[in-house]
Amino acid sequence: MKTLPPDPRFERARMGLILDAPFFGSLIVRLPLVQDDSTETFVTNGKVIRYNRAYADTLTDAELRYVLCHEIMHCSMGHLWRMAGRDVETWNKACDYVVNQMLDDYAAGTKHVPWTRPAGLLDIASQPQFRGLSPEEIYRMMRDKQQPSPPPDPGNAGQDSQDSRDGKAGGKPDEKLGGKNPADPDHPDNPVHKKGEPGIGDFEAPPPDDDPQPGAEAGAESGLEEDWQIATVQAERIANMKGNCPGAASHLVNEMKAPKVSWRDVLREFIRKSAKNDWSFARPNRRHLARGFVLPSLHSERMGRLVAAFDSSGSTRHFVADFQAEVQAALDECLPERIDVIVCDARVQHVQSFEPGDAVTIDARGGGGTDFRPVFDHIDGGREEDEPPVCVVYLTDLDGTYPAKEPEYPVLWCVPPGVGSGRKVPFGEIVAVK
After folding, report:
1. Which residues in the chain are classed under CATH 3.40.50?
2. What pLDDT score does 194 carry?
3. Listed residue (74, 99, 115, 90) closest to 186, CA to CA
4. Cα dihedral 371→376→382→388 (10° resolution)
5. Which residues lie below 8 Å from residue 137, measured CB to CB, with a gap of 6+?
6. What is the C-alpha to C-alpha distance for residues 234 and 285, in angstroms, rounded to an integer?
């Protein structure tokens, strides 16, 4: 990695963004540019942008501005901190679709187009089903479609080789990929996105926090993430003052400004309010009996059965440990008759029952599509001696088939961050897992 004087082209790009696209310009000044020819193109870790000089030299000034904005939006949108153990390559591509959609839509709505998208970057127009979705939703769709490639047909090896050469030259499309040519940027055989190589405008895990907060996870960079959130809010304010703010940026800032309520607090309060605490004459207050007064006493009947349902279709797997801990807390603190844990994707995969004193474990088997009906059918068709549950807590991304009839018991839908945006449920309450 070399420390060199500022490249005049980068300085022109920064100045052009400050003048023509103030939201992006006020953010790009936060990231120093460092030449690092060991990287393939451009990459950021939230503190610097490293770039390959040979690749940068292939870009026009307008394309360079696009790539720089692409990098800062990965930071501004929090993509570096939302990876949550996902496959890095697929997660990067999913985020690229979201960032490029924002940049392209902004350019399409301005009189003076501030940049040009370089060849090779993923284009939302080639995957219209991804438009308007979050990176988490796109990632899940991409992972669902990833299948191992079939072995080549030995009897057709020569033709396959010729087709490959034709495809790279802009010839025959790949029918297995919806008619896409291997030269297309979103084709997996495109050299820009080969396995193990970064794409154009990559990002990587942020560096460790120099002064981590007590209790922070190893490698966490919560301070840097918060800095970017503050900078994004300030950039939106500056752009609005100049009358030049992307609509997507305002939406992003509104989400940041929204008050954050701990989903654990909401979940526990939801369960606690199902407990039966009341005054009753069935158990008179003995302190007043000697005085001839029959007064009620406050008592707490033991809470009935709880149901905790887990959507094992894929998008919630990273939260199984958190959900398990909250189910354990509900069992220990609320002392219900029992908690039934139901794991379900398109069908019920596993059912476990826990009583106070047990250690809760969730076997998150499954991975298919999502159908909520089997869980409620299982509850309603349970043992005859079972009363309806006092409440049902369901961890899911809300992308599934709902029962036609609203159940008689309350339902709380716990939704992981970044998924289910804009989705509505026919019944129950929603809380975002933070």
Report:
1. 263-432
2. 39
3. 90
4. 160
5. 315, 397, 399, 418, 419, 421
6. 61
pTM greater than the 0.90 cutoff: no
| Spatial distance between the Cα atoms of 283 and 301, rounded to a whole number of angstroms | 12
Residues 6+ apart with CB under 8 A from 149: none
SS (H, E, C) the chain: CECCCCCHHHHHHHHHHHHHCHHHHHHHCCCCEEECCCCCCEEECCCCEEECHHHHCCCCHHHHHHHHHHHHHHHHCCCCCCCCCCCHHHHHHHHHHHHHHHHHHHHHCCCCCCCCCCCCCCCHHHCHHHCCCCHHHHHHHHHHHCCCCCCCCHHHHHHHHHHHHHHHCCCCCEHHHCCECCCCCCCCCCHHHCCCCCCCCEECCCCCCCCCCCCCCCCCCHHHHHHHHHHHHHHHHHHHHCCCCCHHHHHHHHHHHCCCCCHHHHHHHHHHCCCEEEEECCCCCHHHHHHCCCCCEEEEECCCEEEEEEECCCCCHHHHHHHHHHHHHHHHHHCCCEEEEEEECCCEEEEEEECCCCCCCCCCCCCCCCECHHHHHHHHCCCCCCCCCCEEEEECCCCCECCCCCCCCCEEEEECCCCCCCCCCCCCEEEECC
What's the angle, vertex CA 188, arms to CA 184 and CA 190, rounded to 5?
50
Alpha carbon separation from 384 to 78, 380, 387, 388, 420 (Å, rounded): 49, 10, 8, 10, 35
The predicted structure's pLDDT at residue 176: 34
pLDDT tens, residue by residue, 19-51:
889 999 999 999 999 999 999 999 999 999 999
Q: How many residues in the chain?
A: 434
pLDDT at position 68: 95
Q: Looking at residue 283, what is its pLDDT?
A: 53
Euclidean distance between CA atoms 321 and 317, whole angstroms: 9
**Residues 135-163: pLDDT tens digits?**
888 888 888 777 554 454 444 444 443 44
Residue 72, both tokens = 């800062």
Q: Do 91 and 83 form a contact (C-beta atoms < 8 A)?
A: yes
Nearest-angstrom CA–CA distance, 121 and 195: 16
- Which amino acid would we find at residue 290? A
Question: How far apart are alpha carbons 171 and 159 in whole angstroms?
Answer: 13
Which stretches of the chain drop beneath a pLDDT of 50?
149-150, 152-198, 212-221, 277-279, 298-300
The CATH number of domain 263-432, selected from 2.40.128, 3.40.50, 1.10.20, 3.30.70: 3.40.50
